[in-house]
Amino acid sequence: MLKISLNNKSLDRLKPSAKPYFLRDGSLKGFGVKVNPTGTIKFVAEVWHNGRSHRQTLGEYPILSTAEARNQVLAYLTEVKSGQLDRSKRQERSLDSLFIDYTSRRRLKERTVTDYREAIFFYLSDWLQKPVVSITKQMVEERFYKIRDEGINGGKPTHSQATKTMRILSALLNYAIADELIESNPVQVLKLKRVDRSIKKRTNYLPAAKVRELLEKSAQDAHPVSLAVHLMIYSGLRKNEALGLKWDDIQQVEGVSCIIIKDPKNGRPHYVPVTPAIQKVLDRVENKTTFLFPSEQKIDSNFCTVRPTVKRLSKMIQHDFRCHDLRRTFATRASEIGIDYLTIKRLLNHKSNDITAQYIQWHSRENLTAMRDALEKIQY
């Protein structure tokens, strides 16, 4: 910026240019003007503080006089250097803004972000524009009980969603503490008052006889979800892992044909050796798209809606089940036929905190062969 003495007379003499340009006052550091090609002149305050630049446009000349602008600049510089501006901005930070910042800065899976958004934007929709500092213990407590006991936005009362929503909100508010937006987490009131937020673990699974019945009755069913269900039964894969498979996820690894889950829940690639039973399922999948189980609505996307098909299959065998029940079914059957606990854990790709286990490279030829032998023993 060029430096001149900014006053009404000097501003009256300024001429616009083809591009915007700035002029800085020679006596008051941080005071300047921006001259636009249209001829408008706007006062600007700027200051460098705590390692970053702060700038604010104050008003337009001659609606705002130079003397008035100078006083506003002095007030702005004082506000920035005293920390009052940062405190003011922190107090205005909304829950919606915090959510966007939290989910964009952390390395979260797309499904996790969607899961968080569905909970927060539904159960706390009326809080999104509220300043984070305005969320109180009483608000948290009342909303938890409302979701749990009454339901909200037309939804049914749900203990699990009340717990889940407050868990996500607590993570957001801990992030706000780290960002010095607030000093304490109001969700802690639920812990301090010993409010029951435990979620009963599901134990549903299909007995081997029911799995045989399911496999037999759906043997000719070529629906993508039916085929994915068969794959889950024989591999122990999670629903999203199975449905999201691409053809190039099936590769030769150390001479062993494998399904590779490149980005599983625990972040460690999972190798599933292809057994004869799994190969039969793959042989029934007939399409030339990227995905094994392509969406019927979206191009270059996998099938996602499983409920209608799973409901139909449940009715077929007179036994209700969910996709995740098949994982418990797989683990239970593996245990029933005598496969050891550590191998079952590995087949399920469950995360291990054991340091030695983290050193083992499970995609060596010998380990893949051992895993394939174990998978072949899991019959129904």
Q: Quick summary of this structure?
A:
This protein has 380 residues and is of the alpha+beta class.
Provide an overview of this structure.
The protein has 380 residues and is of the alpha+beta class. The chain is 47% helix and 12% strand. It contains 17 helices and eight strands. The strands form two sheets. The protein has a five-stranded mixed sheet with strand order 1-2-3-4-5, covered by helices on one side. Helix 5 crosses helix 7. The protein is elongated and about 95 Å long. The mean pLDDT is 89.
Topology:
Layout: E1 2-4, H1 8-12, E2 21-25, E3 31-35, E4 41-49, E5 52-61, H2 66-82, H3 84-92, H4 95-105, H5 110-123, H6 137-149, H7 159-178, H8 188-192, H9 208-217, H10 224-235, H11 239-243, E6 250-253, E7 256-261, E8 270-273, H12 276-284, H13 307-317, H14 323-336, H15 341-347, H16 355-359, H17 365-377
Parallel strand pairs: 1-2
Antiparallel strand pairs: 2-3, 3-4, 4-5, 6-7, 7-8
Helix pairs in contact: 5-7, 6-7, 9-13, 10-12, 10-14
